[in-house]
């Protein structure tokens, strides 16, 4: 049953992704409407899938790379939906949904390894840790895509060649404020995720901080975003420089998310999580 | 025979100086409505006065008389001799007048084709006409059709999306940079029609405050007067960079007014808020390298023209489409206007039937007295429906012939047949 929900979510999110790309090209509102329904449907199926997995194992389904990617994708869509309510920017969907759908495709291509889950994963602290960290990642994904949109538009205005993106993208000021809001919310969530994570570590392993590769890289990511926020608030960085910096930060974040977990080992690594070994 | 006449002048037909004479007094429209309503020869009137055009639209049966009166009224408003005004006026009649009004409302006749303000100005003027009871059946219909045509042009063509004007392009760019222009500050340096038009456009898009500088402070005061702006000394312009968001330069200076170093120095103090230079001057007033600075955008006149050029081809196609829409609407209006000619006859036909029914019922009053109230009503309804049935065919016959050139013959026959005089 769980697999069906996953596949339904995959299909609907793919449809929405393709639909939103066509919307970007054709600029027909009907396309946006249909794609939005598809996305909402996909999101609901995705939520059911996550709930189903959670009920089946008792732990949030992020223990192997496949599930982690799908949870990431879900977080991004949730972050988009929140932003859509606030900003009502249609073009945002054309960038975010394909990205979320892309993560789902990778996720679906990976082998499905289900198994019993150790009791140490069934903790409320862990649940909060994971949800906060992933929602933070989702917000940062919006920061990242907003920054890319900003750079595209800024370039076309600076080069004085107003291409097809010029009329399709919102104003620089809007993109910059999307960048700013998602950055602030993402940072709050990431901080919350790290604090709850260390509290959880204290419960399970008796220490708040273990210098695990994931911990170290998360700290690096957190520090990079902290620098960006500081520059924005105190120095008044905005626009291009802030956009470039948030793209760099997101690259670090992706490396922390995927690279570190796959290659560096440590108790956060998918190898160890997937094997459900005791910590 | 009723005629629709349009007398007016626009940016094409008359120079600014002349248009200004007529546009100075904001109460002109009210006065015009007053004057025209009291003219014997004018049945309905509409009057529009903006900074770019003056239009008088009247419905009359004595066209020569009406024309003369309207022209002398316009001359009186601007304190101008009639002979001086005449060469700058256009006089349109019948469907040409209707088409012109539709074009004006759709912003196809504007200096900045596609600019959206004109429709609002016409609606306001029309509301004035209604308040003063100057418009009637024909102009009400005409204006509503004009609004409809404008709406169609706006939604069905791309003309309004990309107005072909440099100042409009500048405003569009400013919006793309700042999103909303509300609360933004503009520094206008120098004078000239183009710069003032750009400033005016920015104002109408929400810019609230303008600062004006000029080499001669007196001229700055003059320009400031027009925009209700604040004049500053020419030496202050660089320090003003800390305050403003948009700078329009249009001076005859041979050197740059702003250099790369000057602008770079003020960016940090501005907390990197975006700064947009619109350089209309030739030779340029703003050093082009300033565009390389982060959050600063510089467009000179050629570059503004360059971004407009992109959609010239597409605009031509859209213009054809817009013309077709206007033509469709004019034809529809013409059709309606023609049915108007049959309306008086139809009305008198119905009146005649009504009076016959009333008279006959009165005659039979004594005989019908024995009937109950309901029965009396039934008899009345019966009489009325017989009359209506009898008239249905002649009326639909007349309506069907309303567009034919021979309509007047039919009208004549019907009037004689039913003895309607």
TrEMBL record, chain A:
Kindly state which keywords UniProt assigns to this record, in alphabetical order: Cytochrome c-type biogenesis, Membrane, Transmembrane, Transmembrane helix
Q: Indicate how the chain sits in the lipid bilayer.
A: Multi-pass membrane protein
Q: In Gene Ontology terms, what is one molecular function of this protein?
A: heme binding
Q: Which residues cross the membrane?
A: 6-25, 37-56, 68-85, 92-110, 130-153, 178-204, 216-235, 242-264
InterPro entries in UniProt:
Cyt_c_assembly, Cyt_c_biogenesis_CcsA/CcmC
Q: Does the keyword Membrane apply?
A: yes
Which Gene Ontology BP annotations are present? cytochrome complex assembly
Per the database record, which ranges form the Cytochrome c assembly protein domain? 68-268
Source taxon at top rank: Bacteria
Keyword Membrane found: yes
Q: Which Pfam families match?
A: Cytochrom_C_asm (PF01578)
> Where does this protein chiefly localize?
membrane
State the signal peptide span: none
Q: What is this protein called?
A: Cytochrome c-type biogenesis protein CcsB
| Species annotation | uncultured Desulfobacterium sp
UniProtKB/TrEMBL annotation, chain B:
Enzyme Commission no: 1.2.1.70
- Site keyed Important for activity: positions: 100
Q: Identify the pathway.
A: Porphyrin-containing compound metabolism; protoporphyrin-IX biosynthesis; 5-aminolevulinate from L-glutamyl-tRNA(Glu): step 1/2
Which residues does the annotation say bind substrate? Answer: 50-53, 110, 115-117, 121
CDD domains in UniProt: NAD_bind_Glutamyl_tRNA_reduct (cd05213)
Which residue ranges does the record assign to the Glutamyl-tRNA reductase N-terminal domain?
Answer: 7-157
* Enzyme class of the recorded protein, top EC level: oxidoreductase
* MF GO annotations: glutamyl-tRNA reductase activity; NADP binding
Instruction: Return the similarity comment.
Output: Belongs to the glutamyl-tRNA reductase family.
- Complexes and interactors: Homodimer.
Name of protein: Glutamyl-tRNA reductase
The top of its lineage is:
Bacteria, Pseudomonadati, Thermodesulfobacteriota, Desulfobacteria, Desulfobacterales
Q: Which gene encodes it?
A: hemA
């Amino acid at each position: 049953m769980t697999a069906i929900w996953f596949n339904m979510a995959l299909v609907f999110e793919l449809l929405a992704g393709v639909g939103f790309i066509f919307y970007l090209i054709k600029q027909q509102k009907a396309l946006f409407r249909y794609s939005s329904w598809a996305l909402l449907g996909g999101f609901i199926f995705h939520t059911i899938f996550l709930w189903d997995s959670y009920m089946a194992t008792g732990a949030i389904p992020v223990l192997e790379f496949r599930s982690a990617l799908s949870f990431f994708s879900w977080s991004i869509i949730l972050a988009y939906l929140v932003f859509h309510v606030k900003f009502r920017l249609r073009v945002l969907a054309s960038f975010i949904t394909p990205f979320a759908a892309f993560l789902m495709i990778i996720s679906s291509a990976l082998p499905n390894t289900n198994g019993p889950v150790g009791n140490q994963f069934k903790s409320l602290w862990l649940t909060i840790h994971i949800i906060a960290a992933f929602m933070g990642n989702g917000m940062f994904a919006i920061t990242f895509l907003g920054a890319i949109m900003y750079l595209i538009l800024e370039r076309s205005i600076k080069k004085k060649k107003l291409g097809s993106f010029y009329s399709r993208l919102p104003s620089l000021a809007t993109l910059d404020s999307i960048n700013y809001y998602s950055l602030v919310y993402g940072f709050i969530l990431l901080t919350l995720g790290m604090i709850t994570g260390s509290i959880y570590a204290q419960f399970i392993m008796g220490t708040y901080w273990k210098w695990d590769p994931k911990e170290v890289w998360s700290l690096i990511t957190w520090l990079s975003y902290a620098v960006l926020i500081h520059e924005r608030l105190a120095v008044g960085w905005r626009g291009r420089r802030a956009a470039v910096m948030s793209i760099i930060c997101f690259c670090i974040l992706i490396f922390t998310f995927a690279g570190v977990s796959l290659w560096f080992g440590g108790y956060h690594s998918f190898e160890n999580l997937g094997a459900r070994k005791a910590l | 025979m009723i005629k629709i006449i349009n007398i007016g002048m626009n940016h094409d037909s008359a120079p600014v100086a002349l248009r200004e004479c007529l546009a100075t007094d904001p109460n002109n429209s009210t006065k015009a409505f007053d004057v025209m309503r009291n003219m014997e020869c004018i049945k309905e009137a509409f009057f529009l006065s903006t900074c770019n055009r003056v239009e008088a639209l009247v419905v009359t049966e004595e066209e020569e008389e009406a024309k003369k009166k309207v022209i002398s009224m316009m001359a009186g408003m601007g304190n101008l001799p009639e002979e001086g005004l005449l060469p700058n006026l256009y006089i349109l009649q019948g469907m040409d007048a209707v088409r012109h009004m539709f074009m004006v409302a759709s912003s196809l006749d504007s200096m900045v084709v596609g600019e959206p303000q004109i429709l609002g100005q016409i609606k306001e003027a029309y509301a004035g006409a209604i308040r003063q009871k100057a418009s009637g059946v024909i102009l009400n219909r005409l204006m509503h059709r004009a609004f409809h045509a404008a709406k169609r042009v706006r939604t069905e063509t791309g003309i309004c999306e990309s107005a072909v004007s440099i100042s409009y392009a500048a405003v569009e760019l400013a919006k793309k940079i700042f999103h909303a222009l509300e609360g933004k500050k503009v520094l206008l340096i120098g004078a000239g029609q183009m710069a003032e038009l750009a400033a005016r456009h920015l104002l109408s898009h929400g810019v609230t405050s303008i600062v004006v500088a000029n080499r001669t402070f007196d001229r700055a005061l003059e320009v400031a007067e027009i925009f209700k702006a604040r004049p500053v000394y020419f030496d202050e312009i660089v320090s003003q960079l800390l305050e403003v968001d948009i700078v329009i330069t249009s001076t005859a200076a041979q050197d740059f007014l702003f250099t790369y170093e000057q602008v770079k120095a003020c960016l940090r103090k501005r907390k990197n808020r975006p700064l947009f230079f619109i350089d209309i001057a030739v030779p340029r007033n703003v050093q082009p390298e300033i565009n390389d600075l982060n959050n600063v955008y510089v467009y000179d006149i050629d570059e503004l023209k360059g971004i407009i050029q992109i959609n010239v081809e597409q605009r031509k196609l859209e213009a054809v489409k817009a013309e077709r829409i206007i033509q469709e609407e004019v034809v529809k209006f013409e059709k309606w206007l023609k049915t108007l000619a049959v309306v008086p006859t139809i009305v008198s036909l119905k009146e005649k039937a009504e009076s016959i029914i009333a008279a006959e019922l009165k005659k039979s009053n004594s005989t019908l007295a024995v009937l109950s109230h309901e029965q009396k009503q039934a008899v009345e309804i019966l009489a009325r429906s017989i009359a209506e049935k009898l008239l249905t065919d002649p009326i639909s016959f007349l309506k069907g012939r309303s567009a034919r050139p021979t309509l007047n013959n039919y009208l004549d026959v019907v009037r004689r047949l039913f003895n309607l005089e």
